[in-house]
Amino acid sequence: MDRQNLTLMTDLYELTMMQGYFKNKNRNETVIFDAFYRKNPCDGGYAICAGLEQVIKYIQELRFDREDIDYLASLGIFREDFLEYLSGFRFSGDLYAIPEGTVMFPREPVVKVVAPIMEAQLVETAILNIINHQSLIATKAARVCYAARGDGIMEFGLRRAQGPDAGTYGARAAVIGGCIGTSNVLCGQLFGVPVKGTHAHSWIMSFPDEYTAFKAYADMYPGACILLVDTYDTLKSGVPNAIRVFTEMRQAGIPLTFYGIRLDSGDLAYLSKRARKMLDDAGFPDAVISASNDLDEYLIDSLKAQGAAITSWGVGTNLITSKDNPSFGGVYKLAAIRGEDGRFIPKIKLSENSEKVTNPGDKKIYRIYEKESGKLKADLICLTEEQFEESEDLELFDPQEPWKRTLLRAGTYTLRPLMEHIFKNGQWWNMAPGSRRAVLYRPPEKI
Prior knowledge:
By secondary structure, the chain is of the alpha/beta class.
């Protein structure tokens, strides 16, 4: 996206509601909105939070320039006094959020906005757009990485992503979800993530023969020599030619620091096992065997179960698009309005669909761990004024099915606040510049 000012990246009804508040309500009335989701993607057991850094940038730069005001005026639905108000608009509220990389669960606030009602209303669409997309891709990446059981996962879906933004921010989210790098060079430049890549079939086909193509590539990139072996015949041509090149490199005294082959078609389990034996027999037991070809967590799990000799995986389309679950489903709901006495009055949305009934009030989240093992046990959603002591028994229940309960005995668990205070009175305030990354990003936990 060429345009850097994202202020008008919003649904029109946010602005029409703002004008309604401007005319009919106390525009400085403080409210609480919660951004949360109702169901884990891919029918999984958790999600991974991502996108907070872009939310912070959006709010810091949130302002209507002359071009924005002129465009809104051209729509013929906004009054001059409201447009004048927008021309001086700045976010002045507070924002709390779950750090990026954190495991999260349905119905708990991912982002909590405490701000004058007009400000809190405006930021809804952008927050959901940013958090929904990046959390979806980070979650999909985490699932793929889990299926790989410790093998490295490379994201290279840029050419199949739904546009430049989805490809670039999706690659960022994939790294947050556990990928070791991306093929997206722009993502590497913008966010400092590792960029990796080999070559395409066109490289092989552009040379007189496969060996010459491999030799030329190895001469240029001896320290990162991964050769694509399935252009013609994987076992009769590709792997033997790769072995020939590796042998010549060794004989020439070139250190084989990172080298191997990539498979991009065929029966990956069979081909990888045969290729592994050929490489081992030729004296290259540490050669990498990487694979691609429409992979996802299910296919990787199946290949693992078949004993595939693959230790590095390139995952593109199914990861960058989250093909089997293309949307995250996060929502943004009013939770409370501050009364004249300064206390928040809870607000609830009711529905015949029980999953759409919201949790009212000013909330916080505690993450609960088993004291002895340190493993994540559960999350506790509660009101901000509620206090809990680890020295007391704690009974938990499912907010959707409250008859499902569990009792944690005193002294067997520990509590940790999950959300961080990101903005205070419109300012990103909570950490010194050198340590803000600690609040933005939290490495994924073992669950």
